[in-house]
């Protein structure tokens, strides 16, 4: 459920300064200075390993093959394509849309520092938006999931071999889902900015669809967890409510269209949709910190003083992340990693670090700092905090291992990922059935197919990491871990 923003002390103790200093110092580098461009290339390559549908001729992850080519057929629609969210074979619309939004934001803010990888990043966005356009082709309907999660999770098989139920789930006027529809509208709007100059007609299609989907989400309000509880919970159940997604979508639509109606919507609904709630949360289920940071860019440029409260919330978010200022919802591991309760901690690390870096840039251009009681946070400090998290992921941590597969000398070998852990179709053309894959899941051997660029859920609060498939919270990669990391790596590849 949504929680009220918690207050933070207006001071940093001497111990806090020491904590901050220790967290900003490099712990141990696996190769001196990191090759951020190599990590960027691999972080984008990962998305090709997550593709569903008919793969294009220039597919670089060659051990993957076509899969789920009849998705949507049972509902009389074409829902092929898109991304598998993690190590399973389900297409969940909520995290897929958030992934697409964050890939788009990465390109919008950091595309100029991606070099030759910009083309691949844009292609990763388009693989997501092409699917979201299919999922929203029918007015007042959004197809939000393909595949029965319980059936899928009962099997360990390659996506190319799937014989589990490919049930299609949708929201409509009678069964609303403002959360997933709002995030889908946000993704389409953000992507329209990516394609504005690259493909104007495609950009217009994305923006027009975003407008239509947002109107549906706002007109027929409700949480998709209520409409589709048995299908989406506990996997991507909306715990936080749908209000933040409506505001998030309106912010992206305002950014993409510059239409006055969205500015007025944001101003009118700021209190109703609780823009100040849980200021230090950001992920597929909670957009509050992202909303505040994104709007603050305009405030800091002096273009939107009427949104000043959003900047105050963004400042509060920054202060709540500073090491040494105690906050019950944001902790740091002994090795310096941001840690929040719940599974797959790296999703918090990359998303929150992305916001630190984005806000740092906005502050820098406005020549501003963040006041935090008796201390303050400069743009340079926020960059160092974000970089410290990225360096931890790449190997500057107590175990001296990279949490990105294929990067560095030591990285996870037994990730919780069906396609990676089972022999490829090329190596083993014979069908591997639902339960026949169990022996590969339980095997102590490394995965036969390297899912290069995948970032796993990561270590626990004491920096320990079990490189083992059954420990899915630590060993499973997700698209929404990697999407914000793309922007971070792009920046640091140009500003090491």
From TrEMBL:
Residues 1-32 form the signal peptide. The keyword Hydrolase applies. The active site is at residues 416, 467, 476. Its EC number is 3.2.1.4. GO terms for biological process: cellulose catabolic process. Pfam families: Glyco_hydro_9 (PF00759). Residues 36-489 form the Glycoside hydrolase family domain. It catalyses: Endohydrolysis of (1->4)-beta-D-glucosidic linkages in cellulose, lichenin and cereal beta-D-glucans. It comes from the Eukaryota. GO terms for molecular function: cellulase activity. Keywords: Carbohydrate metabolism, Cellulose degradation, Glycosidase, Hydrolase, Polysaccharide degradation, Signal. Belongs to the glycosyl hydrolase 9 (cellulase E) family. This is Endoglucanase. The lineage of its organism: Eukaryota, Viridiplantae, Streptophyta, Embryophyta, Tracheophyta.
